[in-house]
Amino acid sequence: MLHCAAGTNALMINRRQFGKTVLAAGASLFGGAALSPSGAANEGQAPQLGDDGLYRQPWFMESFLNLPEDLQEAAGQGKRLTIIWEQRGCPYCKELHLVNFARPEISNYIKKHFAMLQLNIWGAREVTDFDGQTLGERQLSRKWRVNFTPTIQFFPPTLPANERKPGVELEVARMPGYFKPFHFITMFEFVHERAYERLSFQRYLQEKVAALQAKGIKPEVW
Description:
- By secondary structure, the chain is α/β, with parallel strands linked by helices.
- It is built from 8 helices and 10 strands.
- Helices cover 40% and strands 16% of the residues.
């Protein structure tokens, strides 16, 4: 059983752009922005609750669910591909959207440096893994050993040429559950700065807290 968890080429471009135009048109026809609990929408839009029971940010990546293509597209924008797994009825997923993503300093940082793709841990959409295998979302989550929601996986900027591995072997970091805002944004900083190449996330977090305290700043860690 899967759980919600809290935790500390031209043709390709044309096809993808066409699909995004269609998706955007559909959103304008059937969507409507709702205000966040604070009463302010994120750049005029707030997350929508879809028929699948998942909240979705307006800046989430639109995709044909071909992960090698998605990583290539993100790299072309100077961003890192990030995959977020959620499920219907997950209270921590809801908190992630209505609390963490509602903070401009968090959402703006993520939009600047990351391309975030949302997947449903129980979903049936077909996804092409980095190794070329195509599976439903549910089967892919099992293959990648995603056991909690929300789970966020971070991938390298580029993939080695001719190397085909499943995503679970390529990820450089994973957020296995809900993190409070301070720890949440710190994880994205940890990946963006490629600090995972030299130290653990726990050590990076400790160093960040110590640096802030040395400046007389009390981190909002809870």
